[in-house]
Amino acid sequence: MSQHIRNLCSPPASFEELKSAIACRHVTFPLRVENVAKRVLAKPELMAFGSATSIADDCGVSVSTVMRFVAHIGFHEIAQARAIFRNELRRRLAVLLPESGTKNESDG
């Protein structure tokens, strides 16, 4: 049973757009590349801050498989892909730690 592999024509603008493209099957992956996709979507900090080598080690694949994932989602370089993962982590942090517009507790 052969799976039809599809790449994104243009890179996603956000983490949510990437997740949506995968969920809608606008992009499909070979098995090992899919393993990378699942892992970095579950742990975006891997892609946001890890090297290709550290991501590959964490996913149990080769560096070239990580780079194929990057290419499948429409990017030419891993640094370009990192941006959407870093932005997602910033978004999550902002939800957890919203900037307080209230006065400081020590102000009485």
Automatic annotation (TrEMBL):
Protein name (Swiss-Prot/TrEMBL): RpiR family transcriptional regulator
UniProt keyword annotations, A-Z: DNA-binding
InterPro entries in UniProt: Homeodomain-like_sf, HTH_RpiR, WH-like_DNA-bd_sf
Give the source's domain of life in one word.
Bacteria
Name the PROSITE patterns on file: HTH_RPIR
Can you provide one Gene Ontology molecular function annotated for this UniProt record? DNA binding
The species this protein was found in: Rhizobium laguerreae
Q: Which residues form the HTH rpiR-type domain?
A: 16-92
